[in-house]
Amino acid sequence: MTKEEKALVINSLTEQLNEYPHFYITNIESLNAEQTATLRRKCFESGVKLVVVKNTLLGKALERADKADADLIGVLEGSTSVMFAQTGKVPAVLIKEFRKKNDKPVLKAAYVEGCVYVGDNQLDALCNIKSREELIGDIVALLQSPAKNVISALQGNAGQKIAGIVKTLESRN
User: Could you tell me if 90 and 129 are in contact, meaning their C-beta atoms sit under 8 angstroms apart?
Assistant: First the structure.
């Protein structure tokens, strides 16, 4: 590979690291052609971009994208592929589902919601992680719940009793 080709690959990886907020560094080394094709198809269907990379080129791209965490650089050994995604937990769910029939992909590390997760043992935690939008939705639902209870109480029998009490108090003045 020439210097120009390496520069193109590094630039492409840097663009993808900046474009996608979440990425997973995995090992798919021992998958055969059929299994790899199936994994790529599932990634495409889920909106995940799967790229096989050279470790040194990915390391340089991580540095350029200001995501060169020591833990991420530390896992760049052996065969490496990267899964890029717009939603943080989609690749984790995809990996877990795919591993019901295969031993790979193995999770080396992940960069999700601005945090670094290292090791295959983090897969369950990543499957359960909520996106920023989901957390905001949960907070809004929690805030709306008491207001809904008050409104429904006012619309029901309790509301009629309160209206009667208010009328009685007004007539006393």
Answer: no
Per-residue pLDDT tens over the stretch 55-94: 899 989 988 888 878 888 888 888 889 999 988 888 999 9
The DSSP H or E segment spanning 23 is strand 22-27
d(CA 154, CA 164): 12
Statement: the pTM of the whole predicted model exceeds 0.90: no
Instruction: Give CA–CA dist 48/45, Å, rounded.
Output: 8
Domains of the chain: 3-129 (3.30.70.1730), 133-172 (no CATH)
Closest C-alpha among 38, 172, 15, 6 to residue 105: 38
125 CB contacts (<8 Å, ≥6 apart)?
A: 117
